[in-house]
Structure formats: structure tokens, C-alpha cells
């Protein structure tokens, strides 16, 4: 494995990022409709703070930070790359980017199974987001990273 780096995502990454979202093992079963057909478009990458974790030419994870209002919109690690610290590396990078942008907090509406990860990373639960049919038929934890 080559050294892990984080770089700004490019429009050329869009198809690979979309595949990572759609193929995520965390979204099987009842969660599958949420990511079915989901597209990370080149325009989305241009408009938001989208960064990718790469190992040489391999894209292993990414996140998307929306600055206004401040929200972590997407965070994914490829199934085959989970459990080795890539998620932590991406979240640390996101928090640094948020601080550099002058944000005082970042909201996360979490995929329910990911809540534990975000809490381990320092987020606090502040509420629950209601279902958003037809794709999201369950409540989701709403969390906040306070940036001090």
C-alpha cells in the first residue's frame, strides 16, 4: 500500500464516488433505497468541499462538506478499505477544513449505523431527523461537531 493522502476531488472522480456510494455495504437491506441511483455529479464536486483519500491511484474514501449551512453531507470509505483508519483520517481532515473556513460547528444527519463512529470522533447527538420518503423511511440521528 502506498502512503495515504487526501486531495481535493475532481470532476473526473464523480463516477467512482457515485459507485462507492451506490455499492456501500452499509446501505444494504432496508437502507438500499437511499443510495439507489445516487449520483455524485461533477457539479456537486465543484460546488462543495469534496475531498478524497487516495493510495496512489486508488480512491478509498471521500467526504463532502457543505459550508452554508455547515453540514457533512457525505462520508464514505470503500468497503474493502474499512477498519484501517481512513474514516478517521477523512473526518479529521474535514474538521480541519471546517475550522479553516471559520465554521463554529458542523451538522451531521447520520446513517443510523454510523452514529457510533461520529460520536467516537467527538460529535454529540442533538436530535433526530424525521423520515424523508420515499427513499428514507426511518429516523436518522442528528449530530453536531462543535469546533473550538
Automatic annotation (TrEMBL):
This is GNAT family N-acetyltransferase. It comes from Streptomyces thermolilacinus SPC6. GO terms for molecular function: acyltransferase activity, transferring groups other than amino-acyl groups. Residues 4-144 form the N-acetyltransferase domain. Pfam families: Acetyltransf_10 (PF13673). CDD domains: NAT_SF (cd04301). PANTHER family: FAMILY N-ACETYLTRANSFERASE, PUTATIVE (AFU_ORTHOLOGUE AFUA_6G03350)-RELATED. InterPro entries: Acetyltransferase_Butenolide (IPR053144), Acyl_CoA_acyltransferase (IPR016181), GNAT_dom (IPR000182).
Amino acid at each position: 500500500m502506498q502512503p495515504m493522502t487526501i486531495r481535493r476531488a475532481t470532476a473526473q472522480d464523480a463516477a467512482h464516488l457515485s459507485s462507492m456510494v451506490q455499492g456501500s455495504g452499509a446501505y444494504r437491506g432496508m437502507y438500499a433505497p437511499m443510495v439507489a441511483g445516487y449520483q455524485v455529479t461533477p457539479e456537486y464536486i465543484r460546488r462543495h468541499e469534496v475531498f478524497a483519500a487516495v493510495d496512489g491511484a486508488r480512491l478509498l474514501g471521500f467526504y463532502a462538506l457543505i459550508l452554508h449551512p455547515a453540514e457533512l453531507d457525505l462520508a464514505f470509505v470503500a468497503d474493502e478499505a474499512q477498519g484501517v483508519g481512513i474514516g478517521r483520517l477523512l473526518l479529521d481532515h474535514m474538521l480541519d477544513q471546517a475550522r479553516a473556513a471559520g465554521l463554529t460547528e458542523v451538522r451531521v444527519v447520520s446513517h443510523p449505523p454510523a452514529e457510533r463512529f461520529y460520536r467516537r470522533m467527538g460529535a454529540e447527538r442533538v436530535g433526530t431527523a424525521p423520515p424523508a420518503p420515499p427513499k428514507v423511511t426511518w429516523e436518522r440521528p442528528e449530530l453536531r461537531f462543535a469546533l473550538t
